[in-house]
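Troubleshooting: if your tokenizer reports a length mismatch, compare your output against this known-good record of 109 residues.
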Amino acid sequence: MGDPVKQQTAAPQAPAALALEAAPALLQEVRRTLHARLGVGRHGLEPMLDELGQTLARLLPGPGDARLSPEEQDKARASFASVVDTLEDVLEALHRSGRAGRVLGWGER
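Known-good structure output:
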């Protein structure tokens, strides 16, 4: 068969690779969901979503595109995580506000 050590190290990397490949599609799904839920109110979130998209493009370059150095990758990941955290906080605030009845169309279940 194969080397058991290689098989053990390959398995955990596969889900991470699939997640990275799915990230741009997931970001598009987030955009569609926000558009459906917030309509015009999503415009204030667009700069954050654009930044996420740009960072993903830098982290996941296409064929022939320059790859980031390991240090630049670390910085890009930290920036991405920071924007995701901020976006999460904003969406949670909108959700709480919607549940309190102050934002129509958000927070309903």
